[in-house]
Amino acid sequence: MEHVEYVYTSGMSETEVDEHLRSGEHGVLALADGDDAYAVPLSYHYDGERFLLRVSEHDDDSEKGQYLRTTGTATFVRYEGSTDDSWSVHVRGPVREWDADVDEATLNEWFPPFRLFDEAVGDVEFSLYELGMETVIGRKTVG
User: Fold this and answer.
1) CA-CA-CA-CA torsion sign (71, 76, 82, 84)
2) What's this model's pTM, rounded to 2 decimal places?
3) Tell me, which fold does domain 9-141 have in CATH?
4) Beta bridge mates, 76
């Protein structure tokens, strides 16, 4: 395509990837069940070793819960972009429920306030999932 405009990108250093993950709060988790895909915006916590996702639980039959159970390798994307400047970080690996007792104060420290969507506060419960960081790739616009 001769007349299409292009922007060049390059890989990020491990330090740049780490900084982008540590400074963020939200991204998009992509899941799958066979050839059916599902993506959902989620809040996350990254401490340099663990990548945790806060997932609201409504019932065992939730669409999100079904996809979490069927996905072998999940992808989480954190990004910012404009025409002139952009970057993205992709974290890929298995996603499993994280069995640790975390109190509400720690949840509030680790995650931003939860955004309610047509639900009562008393009806919302959370589970934490750990995304295994098997592959972490960052790309950015070359300037």
Assistant:
1) negative
2) 0.90
3) Pnp Oxidase; Chain A (2.30.110)
4) 29, 91
